[in-house]
Amino acid sequence: MEDKARKRREAFKASEMHILLEEVEASKGLLFDRFRGAHTNKQKAKKWGEIAERITAVTGIHRSDLEVRKKWQDFVSLTKKKASDLRHQTTRTGAGVNTAQPLNDDEEKAMAIIGFSASQGIPGGIDVHAGAGIRNPSGEPRQEAELEEPIPHQSTSDAPTSSPIMTSLTAPSTSAAPTSSPIMTSLTAPSTSTAPTSLPVVTSLPVVTSLPVVSAAHTTPSTASTVTASIAALNSCQCSQDLVELEREKVGLLKDVCGLLREAADRDKAFQDEIIILKRAKLNIAARRLALEEESIRLPQHQAINATIRQTFDPLEVYNDAAVVQHYRLPREAIRHLLATISQDLRRATGRSFALTPQVQLLAALRFYATGSFLQVVGDGLGLSKSSVCRSVQAVTYSLLSLVPQHVRFPTTRDEMSATQEQFFRSFRIPQVVGAVDGTLVPILTPRVDAHVFICRKGYAAVNCQVVCDHQGIILDVVARWPGSTHDSFVFRESSVGRLAATSRGEWRFLGDSGYPLRPYLLTPVANPQDVHDEEFNEAHRVARCVVERTIGRLKLRFRCLHKSGGGLQFSPEKSCAVICVTAMLHNIAAKAGVALAGEPEDVLTTLVARYEYPWSPR
C-alpha cells in the first residue's frame, strides 16, 4: 500500500504541481505558522482538503488531502536535497564545469516558499567540525568542501509610527468648502442651529443650480458675496424684480445666521482653549509625580552603588564549592581556568573606574546560562544593569566560542576511532559504533525573516540542534545551524560528521532512532522484527541510543536557558546558535570534572548499564 501511494504521488502532473505550489504560496502563513488562535490543526487540515479539491476539479484526477500533503513534503525534501547537492557540486568543481542539474521553475518556487534558512541553514549558524581539517581513520584528508561562508541577509525592521499624544486636545478642524447645490436647501430644511425658524417658503421659484449650499455646517465669510453674484446673474437673466427682492431678504437673513454661527464658534473655541490649558496642567502634575516615583525607584540602583557591590562582593571567594556549582554549574577551578583563557578578550580598554572586570562578565554569562532568567534578575546579584548583562553575555559567548573545538572533539585518527569503538562495545555490546546521534529543539525568539521556517512541530520558533555523544555522555559533535522545521535526517546528511560517515566504507557507525534512514554507517531499529534476534537487537539498540537522549536532557537541565521552561533564548538565530555550542562545551567540562546535577548523587547511566544484561551479541 505504501509503495502504491508513493507511485501515485510520483505521478503528479505539471498542472497539478502548478496548482499545488500556487495554493501553498498563497496560504503559507496558515499552513506553516505557529499555533495561535485560528491557526489550528483542524483549519490546516481543512486547507489541505481545499487544495486537493481544487486539483481534482481542475485536472480531473482525484487527490486526497493526505496525498497532496505528502506530495508537498516529498517535493520539498527532494528539492532541498537537489539544492544541497548543487551547492556542494559548485564548491567542489570551482570554476570548472558544473555537472549538477540546476533547479527548474517549480523547484525555484518551492525554495522561495520554504525560505533561505530551510535550504542553506541559519546565516551565522555553527557546525563545530565543518572545515576543521577532520581526516578519515585511514589518515587521508577529507574530500569534502569547506563550509560555505554564510550569505548575510538584510533584516527588515518596521519604522516606528509616531502617534499624537493629545489628539483630543487639538483645535477643531476647518471644514471644506461647500459644494454647489440649490440655495433653498439650507433655508427650507429643518435645522438645529440658532437661526430663526420662521422663513418664507417660495414654491414657485425656478431652480438655480449655480448657487452654493448655505448650511450651518458649511457657512463661510464668502457666502454673502457668492449670493450677491448669483443675484446679479438672476438680473442678467431678466428675472422678476419680486424674486430679486425676495433673494435680498434671504441674504439678510443669511448674514444674521452667519453672525450667530460665528459667535457660537468663538465661544466654543474659548471653551476648548480653557479645556486644553486645564488638561495640560493635569499632565504636567502627573509628569512631575511620575518623575519623582522613577527617581525614588532608581535611587538604590545608582551606578556608584552597583560598582560598590561589584568591588566588595566576589562570589568565588564568598560561596563554598557546592554553592559555586549550584550558581554557575562549573567548579571553581574550571571557572578560573576559563577566566585566565579569555580575560584578555573581555578586558575593556577604558580609564573609567567603574568598568566591568572580566570575572564579573564571565560570572554574569554563566549565571544566565544556568538559569535562563531575565537579564535584570541575573544582574541584581552582581550589581549589574540589564544592558550590562546583555553586553556581558554577548562578549563572553563569542569569546568562549573559539574554545569549542578544543572541548567538543570528534575522533580524527584511527587510534582514537578504535578506542571509542572499543569503549562503546564494552558498554553496550554493539560493535563498530562511535556514538549516538539525535536532534533536539531549542526555543528562540521568533525572527522577523523567514519566521515560518523556524516554527517547529511543537508550535514555537526553535533551532534544530544535532548532538553526537559517546558512551559516557560526552558530546563529540554539535550542529546548530538549521531552523526548527528542518528534519533530523536532513540535518545529519548536511553535517560534516554525516558527510564524513558516508565516506567511511562501513568501518564505523552511528546509532540513530527510527526518524533516520538506515545506512551502512547509520544503524536504526528494525522496523518489523521477524524473529527473536531482531527483537534482541532492537532492545540493545534502544538501551545504547538512550545515552544521547539522557545527554540532551542533562544539557538542558544543567543550562536552563536551552529549555522551554526557562523561556528559551530571547536572541537572534545567529546568537542563539553560538550560545548552544558554548553550553555544549561547558557541559563537557562539567561532565569530565565529575560535576553531578542537582538531585543526582550518582551516575545514573553507570547504574543502568550495570543492572542491564545484554541478550544480544554479535555473531
Topology diagram in text:
Blueprint: H1 2-10, H2 14-26, H3 28-32, H4 41-59, H5 65-93, H6 105-114, H7 116-120, E1 126-127, H8 185-188, H9 223-236, H10 241-298, H11 303-312, H12 315-318, H13 321-328, H14 332-346, H15 358-371, H16 375-380, H17 386-401, H18 404-407, H19 414-428, E2 433-443, H20 451-454, E3 462-469, E4 475-483, H21 488-494, H22 496-502, E5 509-511, E6 522-523, H23 532-558, H24 573-592, H25 604-611
Parallel strand pairs: 2-5, 5-6
Antiparallel strand pairs: 1-4, 2-3, 3-4
Helix pairs in contact: 1-5, 2-4, 2-6, 4-5, 5-6, 9-10, 14-15, 14-17, 15-17, 17-24
- How many strand units? 6
Determine the N-to-C terminus distance. Answer: 34 Å
Q: Give me the side-by-side strand order of the main sheet.
A: 1-4-3-2-5-6
How many domain modules?
4
**Could you tell me the mean pLDDT?**
76
Q: What structural category do the secondary elements indicate?
A: mainly alpha
Large-scale geometry: flat
Strand content: 5-15%
Q: What is the alpha-carbon Rg in Å?
A: 38 Å
* Helix share bin: 40-55%
The unreliable regions are 141-221, 600-619
Largest sheet geometry: 6 strands, mixed
The total count of helices amounts to: 25
Main location: cytoplasm
Protein name: Putative nuclease HARBI1
Pfam families: DDE_Tnp_4, Myb_DNA-bind_5
Keywords: Cytoplasm, Hydrolase, Metal-binding, Nuclease, Nucleus
